[in-house]
Design goal:
The chain has four helices and no strands. The protein is an all-alpha fold.
Length: 144
C-alpha cells in the first residue's frame, strides 16, 4: 500500500480563506451579468419597439440595433472574463474590473430605455467590482 502524496499549498486551486469565495462570487455574477447583457442585446436586435423611449430620447442617439449589438458583444466579453476570473489569473481581475466599469457606463447611458433593468445591471456591476477588489492583498488563488 502506497502512501498518498501530500498536496502542497501552492498546488491547491483554492484556499480555505474568504478570498476564494469572493472570487467565485464575482465570477458567477459576471456570468449572470453576461447573460443579462446578451438578453438585452437580443431584445434590442430583434424587437426595437420593446423599450420605453424612442431612439432620440437616449443619452447617445443610436438605433436599438446598434445598442443590441453593443450589449451582446459586451455580454460575451463579460461572461468570458468571468470564466477567466474563476481560474485566478491577475490579468482576469483587472479585465473584470474594467469590463464592470464599461458595463456600468453602458447601462447608465441606456437607462432611459429601460430604467429598472439598467439599475439592476449597475448594482450587479458594483458587486462584481467590490468582490474582486475587497481582499486585493491576498493571493490565495492560482497563478498570479
Amino acid at each position: 500500500m502506497s502512501t498518498p502524496t501530500p498536496v502542497r499549498e501552492q498546488d491547491r486551486p483554492y484556499s480555505d480563506d474568504g478570498w476564494s469565495g469572493w472570487i467565485m462570487f464575482a465570477s458567477t455574477l459576471m456570468f449572470i451579468l453576461g447573460c443579462f447583457h446578451a438578453i438585452a442585446g437580443l431584445v434590442g436586435i430583434f424587437d426595437e419597439d420593446y423599450y420605453l423611449v424612442g431612439e432620440n430620447d437616449l443619452v447617445v442617439t443610436v438605433d436599438y440595433s446598434t445598442w443590441g449589438w453593443t450589449h451582446l458583444v459586451l455580454g460575451i466579453l463579460v461572461a468570458a472574463a468571468g470564466g477567466a476570473l474563476l481560474r485566478g489569473a491577475m490579468w482576469a481581475r483587472i479585465v473584470a474590473i474594467v469590463l464592470a466599469v464599461l458595463s456600468s457606463i453602458a447601462n447608465l447611458v441606456f437607462m432611459a430605455a429601460y430604467p429598472l433593468w439598467s439599475l439592476i445591471m449597475i448594482t450587479v456591476n458594483v458587486l462584481v467590482i467590490y468582490a474582486v477588489t475587497a481582499h486585493g492583498d491576498r493571493r490565495s488563488l492560482g497563478d498570479y
